[in-house]
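User: Sequence for NADPH-dependent 7-cyano-7-deazaguanine reductase below. Tokens please.
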Amino acid sequence: MTDARYEKLEQLGSAGAAPQRPEDAVLERVENPARDGDYLIRFTCPEFTSICPVTGQPDFAHIVIDYAPGPWIVESKSLKLFLQSFRNHGAFHEACTTMIGQRLVDALAPKWLRIGGYWYPRGGIPIDVFAQWGEAPKGLWIPDQGVAPYRGRG
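Assistant: Structure tokens for NADPH-dependent 7-cyano-7-deazaguanine reductase:
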């Protein structure tokens, strides 16, 4: 017997490749199974990769996504494939980080979402990008994102 809440999931359990472009990626969602209270969901992608739109060289980041779900939660395989689709995507750090957050907000309608993009140095300068949508629910425990500031070889 198939649960109706999960009938539209097409990526979970299938051998799907990452889309070639983030615009082609589908973020799948399921009903929030714990809507009676507020809680935090965290996804960490320590090996995020995109392409510099000017030089064509790879850029690397540690991405941390925190959100307090509303009616939906993201299906994790679809999120993984979405993040992998940036590997051939040319965009600046700011555009990649905020695009990820906005796509999640559009798909999930969370009560609150924040994203931290901790980018490794380009031209000798690390760039960290942070964005937030909404206000965190009162009383929600929000741990530090746990990514140390860039220190080089110090």
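The domain at 40-133 is CATH 3.30.1130.10 (GTP Cyclohydrolase I, domain 2).
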